[in-house]
Amino acid sequence: MEGAVRPGHFAGVATVVAKLFALARPTHAFFGEKDAQQLDVIERLVRDLGFPLLVRRCPTVREADGLALSSRNVYLGAADRAAAPVLHRALQAARSRRTPAASATTRCWRPWGPRSCAPRRGRSSTTSRCVGAAPAWRRGSRAAGG
Q1: How confident is the model at residue 6, as a pLDDT?
Q2: Is the pLDDT of residue 103 over 90?
Q3: What pLDDT does residue 10 have?
Q4: At what angle do helices 9-24 and 36-49 cross, to 10 degrees?
Q5: 143: closest CA among 53, 33, 59?
Q6: What is the DSSP string of the chain?
Q7: How far apart are CA 57 and CA 128, in angstroms?
Q8: pTM (two decimals)
């Protein structure tokens, strides 16, 4: 995982985001799914520190060839840039071959252990999110949109 090759990176992300949340006091925070490990850290930070906000996962924005948009793409050489979208295409091909039953519920790995994954409401069954016990403040009226 990325944390092993970038020691301290996620701790720094958590510190900066926690300070931002403490100062701005948002009710919602929107993060792209492209940086999944970072998003997992932020979701755990919100849960563990009890920030009264909802973290929303936003789909990855991609270039026409499927490569995820990123400022880091400038570091790719021509050969790496040409090869980079292949993984996305392969994953899309595999997803299109899945059976509906296989996509209904799966297991996913999180740094704090496996959790159940279920299809997102209002989205196709091929898009899932990890679900588990929500913090107490999320189970209240705010989680219901109140």
Answers
A1: 73
A2: no
A3: 86
A4: 50
A5: 53
A6: -HHHHSTTHHHHHHHHHHHHHHHH--SEEEEEGGGHHHHHHHHHHHHHHT-S-EEEEEPPPB-TTSPBP-GGGGG--HHHHHHTHHHHHHHHHHHHHS-HHHHHSEEE--TT--EEEEEPTTS-TTSEEEE-PPPHHHHSTTTTT-
A7: 11
A8: 0.57
Distance CA 67, CA 69 (A): 6
Distance, CA of 142 to CA of 53 (rounded, Å): 9
Whether residue 131 is predicted with pLDDT greater than 80 in this model: the reply is no
pLDDT at 72 over 60: yes
Q: Count other C-beta atoms under 10 Å from residue 51's C-beta.
A: 20
Region 53-74: mean pLDDT is 91
